[in-house]
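Example (one chain per record):
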Amino acid sequence: MAKAEKVVLAYSGGLDTSVILPWLKETYGYDVIAFAAELGQGDELVGIKKKALATGAVKCVVKDLRKEFVEDYIWPMLKAGAIYENDYLLGTSVARPLIAKHQVDVAGAEGATAVAHGATGKGNDQVRFELTFMALDPGLKIIAPWKDPNFTLTSREAAVDYARKHKIPIEQSKRKIYSRDRNLWHISHEGADLEDPWNEPKDDLFVMSRPVSKAPNKADYVEIGFKEGVPTRLNGKAVGGVKIIETLNTIGGKHAVGQDDLVENRLVGMKSRGVYETPGGTILTTAHRAIESITLDRETMHYKQQVALKYAEMVYYGQWFCRLREALDAFVDATQKNVTGTVRLKLYKGRCTIAGVKSPRSLYRTDLAGFKMGAEYDPTDANGFIRLYGLPMKVAGIVDGKNRKGGKGGK
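Predicted structure:
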């Protein structure tokens, strides 16, 4: 009798992967190795090994990837200033390539010939997982049940019924059926009443943060220290990256900071609506933008803004392990050499605002920026500059016949 094929499944213990694990075994007889990544999702991984084995896995591998997640994924993205469609701080997007990378590693260690994921055929995650698999081990077989013609659990309601029938413990019910993804950087909420963009998010939706209506009436202040674009200090003390984000999640969540309700454009073509909580990420993104404002020159800043748009698209589209992203990182790192200093922020009623910024590499000079004229700036120099700078527009005005003091436009 031939040995069963070994498959490494990205396993979160949520609704989709909870039913996919036994389905893979039941339908195709696979030996399923469950892989779970600890990315800071709270108590979601409690008992996950026991659950995976009880529902058919031959083995469950759990890895704590929080430090790697922060240092090798979140910090590069933060330094790049990557934000998708103005609001989405890419919490789910940036985590998927890390999970898939370690799936590939587990497949190699366990002698598996295939990797599997529970992403739907409508979403972005299928692309993020599969592009990573293709980039890091093109020889692995990719199993995606949601795109399998034999897979009949093509709604969350059907998945709930399957779980009940097979006595698989799940948190979801047909009345409480949000699709959520949580890690150290954020939590996303999709589905159920959120599928109608006219519906306001309910107060009990939020997990990492309070509703704005329940935020304190007194503001809190935090100080974040940066070294070459990376957050290294919190309120004057040297703190590791994981701890910085965890602490800012707590204080930002208390003040309802980082709640975004977004209708976004998925890679596969349709629009979708998600509500995101990113308290610590919002604070860090605001602070990083502030320290860059006084340490980057104009031309670098403006070009970097263009790079940030492309970087965000690549993260969202699952193109983390591609050469262009690596090349963009090299550019970003060069821009961050002087991005060192401290930012003070005020957190109040859902808002995160700048309360102060300073840097030993600051390009801001009060003697130049102030209204008082001094020897360091001769205002008469501006006359010639403006004449030359505006010359193309002046010539165009003449050609268009806008010379009102007599004279005619050029022929």
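Caption: The chain has a mean pLDDT of 93.
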